[in-house]
Specification:
ROK, 288 residues, Transcription regulator, ATPase_NBD, 2 domains
Length: 288
């Protein structure tokens, strides 16, 4: 038996056929349609086009996902999947048992199941993109929180001016600040260019990268002492840089050294899975 998994994004919906061990047998994607009827038809088409015996369908979705009620709260780039019994509709149309979980939580579950945090029970997973998202895993399961906002690290306030971790701790926003300070078109300064500018000796790029790394490290230190995880796993495109985790760990050492009484040093590692993480994690959740 296999699991049909879907990763629903604002631009594309990825899908795959996975074994109960997390192996991806087949995968593909389609452009995210602009209405619910088209979405349902495309999901059904995917199932119909595969010649597998599926034990169920596993969904990774944006928003405040409640698998028990079948309703996705909040808002996302796919507005028509929110605030009605979406899970029940999927089960009816796909004729399969359906589970659904938040996309960041799925990525974390993939890492705990067969990834960088395999066999760990308590981890923090941080996704660095245009903001900072993530998940908290406690006793091997997602800690959703009272309002399904567990892992929304990006809202944490970092200074007296009201700047959040999403604003200060991401390469995307660092690039925006650099382009503004250097009076360059925003489309000329992306995450890759930021590191190139620093390598070229640009003082602004150096300063903004120091800001990003410092506040990321500070947030990791604070979360270590608030939740006491075994490991902090970092995901997102920037984490794929060979030197990113090493440099972040250097800043974690610096922050820890500023608090002499602190004995616990956070263990910070990069994630194992990239674009397939949500499919694998949705499958892990389905099997749990």
């Amino acid at each position: 038996m296999t699991i049909l998994a879907f990763d629903m994004g604002g631009t594309a919906v990825k899908y795959g056929v996975l074994t109960p061990q997390g192996e991806i047998l087949e995968k593909g994607k389609f452009a995210t349609p602009d209405n619910l009827d088209k979405m349902i038809q495309l999901l059904v088409n995917v199932k119909t086009n595969y010649n597998y015996s599926f034990q169920g369908a596993a969904f990774s979705c944006p928003g405040a996902v409640n698998n028990e009620t079948g309703i996705i709260g909040g808002a996302s780039a796919i507005p028509y999947i929110h605030n009605f019994p979406f899970k029940q509709l999927l089960e009816e149309k796909l004729a399969l048992p359906v589970t659904m979980e938040n996309d960041a939580n799925c990525a974390a579950l993939a890492e705990v199941w067969i990834g960088a945090a395999k066999d760990k029970q308590d981890i923090i997973f941080m996704i660095l993109g245009s903001g900072v998202g993530g998940a908290v895993i406690r006793d091997g399961k997602v800690h959703h929180g009272a309002n399904l906002h567990g892992g929304e690290f990006g809202y944490m306030l970092m200074d007296r001016d009201g700047n959040t971790l999403s604003e200060l701790g991401t390469i995307v926003n660092a690039a925006t600040r650099i382009s503004k300070r250097l009076e360059l078109p925003t489309d000329e300064v992306d995450g890759h260019r930021v590191f190139e500018l620093r390598a070229e000796g640009n003082a602004v790029a150096k300063e903004e990268l120091e800001t990003m790394f410092y506040y990321l490290a500070r947030s990791i230190f604070n979360l270590q002492y608030a939740l006491d995880p075994e490991m902090v796993v970092i995901g997102g495109g920037v984490s794929e840089r060979a030197d990113f985790i090493t440099e972040l760990n250097n800043y974690v050492d610096e922050v820890k050294a500023s608090v002499p009484i602190a004995m616990i040093r956070p263990t910070v590692v990069g994630c194992k899975f990239g674009n397939d993480a949500n499919l694998i994690g949705a499958t892990a959740f389905h099997l749990s």
